[in-house]
Amino acid sequence: MDESLNQKVAKWLTRVISNNYMPKWAVFIVDCTLIAASFFTATFLWQSIMLDFNTNPTFQYLSLLYIGIFILATLLFQTFSGIIRFSGVYDTLRLVVMVIFGGVTFYLFNIKLKLVEENFQSNEGVIVFWVFCTFTLLFTFRKAVRFTYSYWQNKKDTQKRTIILFNNEGHADFVKLMLADSRSSYIPVVLLDKTGKMNGMRISNVPVISYNNNIGYIASKYKTKTLLILRNDLATLNGLSEDCLNNDVDMMVSEISSFDGNVNFSSNVHRIQIEDLLNRDVIERDTKPLETLFYHRTVMVTGGAGSIGSEIVRQLCKYKCDVVIFDSAESPLHSISLEIAEKYPNTNLTCIIGDVRNIKKLERAFEEYQPDIVFHAAAYKHVPLMEDYPEEAILANVLGSKNVADLCVKHSVKKMVMVSTDKAVNPTNVMGASKRIAEQYVNALFTNHLQQGGNTKMVTTRFGNVLGSNGSVVPIFKKQIAKGGPITITHRDIIRYFMTIPEACSLVLEAGSMGNGGEVFVFDMGRPVKIYDLAVRMVKLSGLKPDTDIKIVETGLRPGEKLYEELLTSSENTQPTYNEKIMIAKVNTMPYEKVSHLVSNLIAEANNGNKIEVVRLMKEIVPEYKSNNSIYESLDIEVKQEQLESVLLS
Known about the structure:
Blueprint: H1 2-19, H2 24-50, H3 59-77, H4 89-113, H5 115-119, H6 123-155, E1 160-165, H7 171-180, E2 186-193, E3 202-203, E4 206-210, H8 215-221, E5 226-230, H9 239-246, E6 250-254, E7 269-271, H10 287-294, E8 298-302, H11 307-316, E9 322-327, H12 330-343, E10 349-353, H13 359-369, E11 373-376, H14 383-388, H15 390-410, E12 415-419, H16 430-451, E13 457-461, E14 465-467, H17 473-482, E15 487-489, E16 495-496, E17 498-500, H18 501-514, E18 520-523, E19 529-530, H19 531-541, E20 552-554, E21 573-576, E22 582-586, H20 592-608, H21 611-621, H22 633-649
Parallel strand pairs: 1-2, 1-5, 2-4, 5-6, 8-9, 8-11, 9-10, 11-12, 12-13, 13-18, 14-17, 15-20
Antiparallel strand pairs: 3-4, 6-7, 16-19, 18-22, 21-22
Helix pairs in contact: 2-3, 2-6, 3-4, 4-6, 11-18, 13-15, 15-16, 15-20, 16-20, 16-21, 20-21
């Protein structure tokens, strides 16, 4: 029987410790015991010091009265109801109020009963001493529990000692609930304050210290290699991220946005991704013009199942418009339709399998759904593949854009927004040149249409590489790291501009609202990123060491690839818009008759499959197109020779 009882007690203690809190009833019993103990201990001490205690039968009534009043006060103020290990200033104040209430109540009873006078010479003094001892024992018990739990948690091998980036007092709830979650794999040992305002304070007994570019020292002092930050505070990382990477401190991010006590912290924590460390300011967008533009309109998105197109669709679903997706990729189209049905069940979504090169299928879609606005995101975008198949680049990027633009004019679409690329600027590859030709055709068509009294507005957006899009460098690097390397980069000095997919699509929607027709929108993409540095950071973010755990190998520039991208040609300049992050490029527009004739010839050659002649005509339409690391460089030599001969003959 004794053995069984011991086992039950052991199990209860184990459960209490593992749950990280004492039950309310257990705290109440301890408090009652301490109240009784404080009375008798204080009486013994008073007798030893003051020598004024008289043995009297009424003392037992006195003790019962005092203990009873304080137990009732405990029940009234519920001082046992909080989780002791998280007790703070509020809990201490409540304890103070409780003992003062108990002391005053006992004093008032004593005035009537005069029990203290019968046993002590100084009644007020001994009452104050009793109350003081009661508060001291109750307060000491709580501090002891907090210290014991803190010591226990710091000894647990299953939890990672963690630095918390602490920005304001609101983070105290996060720290408290993190400590309360017995399932959490992380235990905060220090709070890092970048403002310096709370240096030296303690939150839930966790010290707060200032950060002064010394994360290595802090990690060493507190025996940790983990930094945790809330998703909403990523913008405050700044130089801290580099400091962490250089000192092998793992950066984790928590997606938790509410502190209701029912959250599993561990399942909501993951490693910070490279996208989080771009240090970019997200474009601020005034949603009112967008609500006016899209409300109860029919919006078609070509290429709406792709990386950019699908995000455009997601953002459009917020504006109560009917959305038509036109795309040739069956599986991605099915996926986005299921996603929209789940997340935006009130959106009227239509998915059409079709190719923008097929003018008849495209026109049937225009005739049936009569779109008010068209976002043209369908295109071939991979540089090496298009270098091998220039005819396909022309048919998809030029013919496809021509078909969409022509039908927008024919069906009096209010606005067409074409998605272009920074590779269209001073192009060195087929893909970029094909997008530049598409830009030229759309701009020329708009100018001609405007002159004839048309009302269809056409605008273009240019932006750089998009993080996380299909085939982009970041997911490729992630797969290579997961396989143990090596990471392959084409050149150590290659640099690129980057943005997130939501940012890119914010720009596209913004262009749709502010464009009056004929504009080419570009926006401030921040500082360019060296691809080698990007690879190094991604390896470190994975908890590995570059060139030790994961090799980084140069493979050489690919056909058509250049070291850096541009957003403007040398002949272009910009003018500002109401959004300081978005600018309008002043571009040269060719006469519609000329560009239409050249584009028709180009499409005919593409249909014939003559690669060299296709590229030759592309260079005629886009004189600044100079091939780089490509078999088509010979065409540039021919042009130079022809120009030289022309000069000599003249």
